[in-house]
């Protein structure tokens, strides 16, 4: 965990800026995975009623609240105290089906009972895959799903890395020209696939999310993965998963 603490500091700065602006964002009317109005919406989830769900890096909590309103039992975890505070301000007291947690997602996943579904809107690339992926598979029930969106091409048109390296990206404070550097794992789809498979998950689909504005280079990918019902052992023979 070398670069990640400074990332959380930057998110605290971002969030305190938004708190100071008193910005009131509306509730989601259409689910987005990074670019409002582009790409798939909530359809990849299917029916979430009664599902035990984790929002990894939940920020303001709007996505989590949206799923909770559809009957999911959602835990929303964010490591930034200021982001968490914004979420608590927005959803004070008991919002049915929504639990807001301020914690490192990896620490939470190590201890939590397994989830039916873990999703993340643009937050996974802030966590070191070498720290996150080893705990992810056992944080899902067998057959459980992982849905996450990740930066693919940044605003300058720089595409993803085909090597497992962390690199700086720019986070601009909304309403200003003040830029902050954040370290991210902006990885190519083939590399995400290899990493997920190495850590016991199967990748089911990758969906491109480009901006509808042709002048905007920013592009995301939505990854849909699953913990298999059965794990393959080193001989390639399937064995039934009995625990985790
Ligand atoms: C780009 S924001 C996305 C927030 C939210 N998912 C959304 O779409 O509005 C990334 C979030 O990831 C959180 N984050 C970064 N590292 C984390 C970690 N190790 N554990 C939990 N949250 C983390 C940050 O604090 C930040 O709120």
Describe the overall structure.
- With 244 residues, the protein is α/β, with parallel strands linked by helices.
- It has one domain (4-16, 49-229): Vaccinia Virus protein VP39 (Rossmann fold), CATH 3.40.50.150.
- The protein is 25% helix and 30% strand.
- The chain has six helices and eleven strands.
- It has helices spanning 4-21, 62-69, 81-90, 105-111, 129-136, 189-198; strands spanning 52-56, 73-78, 98-102, 115-121, 140-153, 167-172, 179-184, 202-210, 219-226, 230-232, 238-240.
- Strands 3-2-1-4-5-9-8 form a seven-stranded mixed β-sheet, with helices on both faces.
- Helix 1 packs parallel to helix 3 (81-90) and helix 4 runs parallel beside helix 5 (129-136).
- The two termini are 24 Å apart.
- S-adenosylmethionine (SAM) binds at residues 4, 7-8, 11, 57-60, 77-80, 83, 104-105, 121-123, 126-127.
